[in-house]
Fold this sequence. Notes:
The protein is an alpha/beta fold. The chain folds into three domains: 9-69, CATH 2.40.50.140; 95-124 and 287-453, Vaccinia Virus protein VP39 (Rossmann fold, 3-Layer(aba) Sandwich), CATH 3.40.50.150; 131-271, CATH 2.40.50.1070. 24% of the residues lie in helices and 31% in strands. It contains nine helices and 23 strands. The chain has helices spanning 90-107, 168-183, 225-232, 288-302, 319-325, 338-350, 363-374, 392-401, 413-424, and strands at 9-17, 23-27, 30-34, 42-50, 54-64, 116-120, 131-134, 136-138, 144-149, 156-158, 197-204, 211-217, 238-245, 257-262, 267-271, 274-278, 309-313, 330-335, 356-360, 380-383, 405-410, 428-436, 446-453. It has an eight-stranded mixed sheet, with helices on both faces. Helix 1 (90-107) packs parallel to helix 9 (413-424). The longest helix is centred in the first third of the chain and has 18 residues, at 90-107. The relative contact order is 0.10. The site of S-adenosyl-L-homocysteine (SAH) has 18 residues, from helix 5, strand 18 and helix 7.
Amino acid sequence: MSEWKKNDKFETVIEDISETGEGIGKTDGFTWFIKDTVIGDRVEAKAMKTKKSYGFARMERILEPSKNRVEPKCPVARQCGGCQLQAMDYKEQLTFKERKIYNNLTRIGGFTEIPMLPIIGMDEPWRYRNKAQFPWGMDKEDNIITGFYAGRTHSIIGCEDCLLGIEENEDILKIIKAHMERFGLRLYDEETHKGLIRHTLIRKGFKTGELMVCQVINGKSLPHQEELVEELLKIPGMTSISYSVNREKTNVIMGNQVENLYGPGYISDYIGDVKYRISPLSFYQVNPVQTEKLYGTALEYAGLTGGETVWDLYCGIGTISLFLAQKAKKVYGVEIVPQAIEDARENAKLNGMENVEFFVGKAEEVLPEQFEKNQVYADVIVVDPPRKGCDEVCLDTIVKMGPKRVVYVSCDSATLARDLKYLAERGYELSRVRGCDMFPHSGHVETVALLTLV
Ligand code: SAH
């Protein structure tokens, strides 16, 4: 055990930021994780919980602020669990993310020369989210409030106007709150599993201006629906109003079923020239502006001239597949979630694209099977796996198929580095790497890498 005890005070300088956004400082070789700090801050902190070689501490006082420290724009930035980097100047956030990618590629990937292009940041890193799910609760004076969960808890921090979200959120939430008060609707209580009103889902198509509201309820129907619809329709752009029944004791927000109250049951949006239909339950990237840049980069790296056969592994609802299909002869998508593939096929039809075909299944099963049985071929393979990266069987099959180019889109640069190393040891050369900031003020960063067969 360390000699540190709870509530011990100490001084340290923040040198780095953890995966989850805490500042990292040291005292005589002991490592501290301290929330709400920025690289370069000299702080006084208080020990909360200690292990053998590291501990968690609470920031008590900033003794000397980092030159990159800024006043968070959002008044609840410190309590809310949503943003980790708001106190860091946006330029510095981008530098931090770029360095994270670079460090992982050198430390884990073993690369010495990294052909890195400047990270793609946002010109305006606020109000970029097209989707929000607001929980409802009571404050100490028994007022109805909504906002966001404080980090790692279910206590609600009141905030109707998150600065990452759209401006319409606030007006929509006011209408829903007024409706609850007017008709005495009860809030859902997680502990007793009683009460009706659960989360409110709000989505917007940034290119179309279309708005969607879906109210989640613990009950069969939403009382006084007509009055609610009438009020919500006063908001310009309101296109789809529905409710979702979720009677389970669960942290999952949406129920499986959606009942339509107004409109076609979906909204539409575009990424580039490709149109997407978004229903309350369908997956859609939350930052459409950066998604367009990210997929634009993937498309550029794919180097398509119109004659290529492309595989898009981990394709989700086919966003990248359809983007590529604009410039390829044929695109095959593979995704494990059947519902996502239904959406992908629907979106292909919506855009009149006939040169795409989708498979439901694991990439590491579908690809080897198609390769061994049907000798399928690829000029280019694009992968966009979840955080854990690609399965080795999948990488191995890619190597066997020997496409000229592999484009790797990643949301975790540590597993990216591991997988790139595997491919680089088997005939591929790392030709380009570029970060893209999809989630300003959070610690996350997306990366696109291009590998070329040598
Ligand atoms: N490119 C997609 C998003 C990819 S997110 C888009 O833009 O919509 C990663 C996707 O991989 C998720 O949809 C997830 O369901 C899927 N997935 C996870 N494990 C998988 C596996 N073993 N094989 C295929 N798909 C998988």
